[in-house]
Amino acid sequence: MPITIRDVREHELDSVLALNNAAGPSILPMDAAKVRFFWEHAEYFRVAEQDGLITGFLVALSQDAPHDSPNFLWFRERYERFLYVDRIVIARPRRGGGRGRAFYADVQSFAEPRWPQLCCEVFLQSGNDPALLFHGSFGFREVGQQVMAGTEIRVAMLMKEMCSHAYVAQAYGDKLPDQPWLRARALPGRAPSRATGT
What we know:
Layout: E1 4-7, H1 13-21, H2 32-41, E2 44-50, E3 53-62, H3 70-78, E4 83-90, H4 99-111, E5 117-123, H5 129-137, E6 141-147, E7 154-161, H6 165-172
Helix pairs in contact: 1-2
Organism: Arenimonas terrae
GO molecular function: acyltransferase activity, transferring groups other than amino-acyl groups
Keywords: Transferase
């Protein structure tokens, strides 16, 4: 069956939480309050669905989110506007099937009309070279490193310039065409937006 990438639904948050916490040491655990925070504040919060099951998800937040992640704050101290990929999780039995690449193609398509940069980090640990290679193949480059506060985890801070953003911003300002693929996620308390993120 085909893989569908779509916005998460509120009743699926428990499934997202379980998937995250079964992902292994390369993904930080989270609790119900954190997944609810993402539901309320993430500009991009989509799942991969196949055969009626959620097999992965990706969460990304704009620079304006009230997020306390040290890696998010690292970017906010240095860059004015960006979309930050907080986490991508693929169910262990479904890894290697192209879901990660599909998510990154989708989040890039979502980000490019709205933000000049797409950011994330990768843990610099033994055996994590495939994650660095994966991001490099999408055009991300390292813009710094840090050790996460309260841990001994060193991370590479990665960024990708959204090369079409300047053109879109100049041509459309804060009013993107009213097309389904350009519609932003409706955050609780906020109507769906077509704005470029300015």
